[in-house]
Amino acid sequence: MTSSSSTLSVGRTLFRLRSLTPVPVIIVCGWALYASRGVPGPGGATVDLAFDVLGLFLAMLGQTLRFYVLGWVPEGTSGQNLSIQASTLNTTGPYAYVRNPLYVGNLGIVLGLCCIAHDPWVYGLALVFFFGEYFFIIRAEEDFLRSKFGAAFDEFCQTVPRWVPRLSAAKQGALRSGGFDWRRALKKEINPFSAWALGAVGLFGWEQYARGGLGTGLLASLVSVTAIVLVSLLTVKAWKKGWLFS
User: Fold this and answer.
1) 10 lies in which domain range?
2) Integer distance in angstroms from the first to the last C-alpha of the chain?
3) Which residue from 215, 212, 107, 126 is spatially nearest to 164, judged by alpha carbons?
4) Is the dihedral of CA 180, 198, 123, 54 positive or negative?
5) Coil, strand or helix: which one is 79?
6) Which CATH number belongs to the domain containing residue 66 in this structure?
7) What is the largest CA-CA distance in the chain?
8) Fewer CB near the last or first residue (10 Å), C or N of the chain?
9) Dihedrals φ, ψ of 47, to 5°?
10) Average pLDDT over residues 143-149
11) What is the structure's pLDDT at 37?
12) Which pLDDT tens digit goes with each residue over 27-37?
């Protein structure tokens, strides 16, 4: 099925700006949480705490999937650039189960942060934005891949779902000839990991502060987690630039 030129144009624009487009949504969600003054979400405080744990689990699951994908794929693929490009058509490894494993990972992270926030406005705004943006981006990517790989991409679409992973691989094999490259995955993922991890700390910290439960011990723990994330971020960035471990 082909998409209209306007849909493809919007998709290419959103792909290019995808690092910036969440900012307004984050600001609005932040305002909604501030306005709530820390009132527990649906189900009360007990359910809220359970959703904090569930949210952290979902975010970590999504991050693990992203790390796994980026350790297997070759350079020049999987949406790590400012323009849509692909040197090869990824159909094995994680791509043998779902066509957009990175975006499935992103969904896990977004759902995780939503669960930690546990606010109806946040659920609505974040998920409408997420699926709305990727509706356009995925169609622009698929148009590009279809124009470049033709029948091979059509066959891939027929056997591998867009969002819901298969239970068994559609095609066996590995994407990277040298095996899993954890160094590449770590360098690629340190920014996304740091962003959502600090966001999770901020959400939980605000929740406890607004309810009067941010004691000295909990505050010290949150500050320590923040420091660990920031030190990890700076260390990996220095490594990427060749200042460490060269």
Assistant:
1) 5-181
2) 49
3) 107
4) positive
5) coil
6) 1.20.120
7) 61
8) N
9) -65, -40
10) 94
11) 79
12) 999 999 998 87
